[in-house]
Amino acid sequence: MALDQRLLDILACPKDKGPLYYFADEAALYNPRLQLSYAVRDDIPVMLIDEATHVDQTEHDRLMKVVADRNLAPTFLAAT
Questions:
Q1: What is the pLDDT of residues 21-73, one digit of tens each?
Q2: In whole angstroms, what is the distance from residue 67 CA to residue 51 CA?
Q3: Rounded CA gap, 80 and 5, in Å?
């Protein structure tokens, strides 16, 4: 089961308050600005900074390629 779109529309990184990318098949939310990944367990996002995983550059590049290939949209559009 995927996260509800209404939840995704408001989810933000707890550290920088910016948008995230949701990878349903990997059960993760990703902040490319800080290279932090938040787990989704039993369809519940674990949005605790202390439990976020830092992603190395190789994994960041892979995730951003998935974003581009699948044309994934962020959880919301950040104000400019």
A1: 999 999 999 999 999 999 999 999 999 999 999 999 999 999 999 999 999 99
A2: 23
A3: 23
Please, what are the domains in the chain?
5-70 (2.20.25.10)
Q: Who wins on pLDDT, 3 or 54?
A: 54
Return the SS3 of 41.
strand
DSSP secondary structure of 11-37: ---TTT----EEEGGGTEEEETTTTEE
CA separation, residue 77 to residues 35, 39, 54, 80 (Å): 18, 21, 23, 9
Task: With beta carbons less than 8 A apart as the criterion, state whether 52 and 37 touch.
Answer: yes
The model's pTM is: 0.92
